[in-house]
Amino acid sequence: MRRYLLPILLLPVLLLSLATATQRPAARRPAVAIASWNMEWLVSPGTAQGARLACRRGQRAALPCDVARDLSRDSADLSRLAWYARRLDADVIALIEMGPNKRRILEEIKDRYPYHTHCYQIDYCNLAILSKFPIAGSDARSQWDGPPVISARLGPEAGGLTVFAVHTIRF
Q1: pLDDT at residue 54 above 80?
Q2: Strand partners, 34
Q3: Angle CA(128)–CA(132)–CA(133) in degrees, nearest 5?
Q4: Half-sphere exposure of 8 (CA within 13 A, CB side)
């Protein structure tokens, strides 16, 4: 019995050593630069002008009157915003408040961000995520107990990272 005791005791040590030696080191995730950008009250010139006139007349407007009075940007800014996005050069950009009049910016920077997901098909969910990495999956919600949210799970090129964009709304 004594003769077998030492090999029996050494067997677990040998197996543990073998398992440790064959393990691969954990893969390191690549560094991913992420930016978030609220597109704010970027509206068409006609919408801005109509809101200013309605506010002057005391009528209901498409924008809050304080915003309509102080609004200095319009859809002509889209090219400039696309320039900023290119200059920013993040790997992933989360865009908040992407109303219909702002969505052409996606086409303007598609050369830099070929992968994107959005939740425009869901009421009150005007969010988009643009990426230089392939997007393996996405999900979005709006009109639930929380604020509008979209997520994008990036592919293995970005280490399977999941990015969320949330629009916290004032109530």
Answers
A1: yes
A2: 92
A3: 95
A4: 5
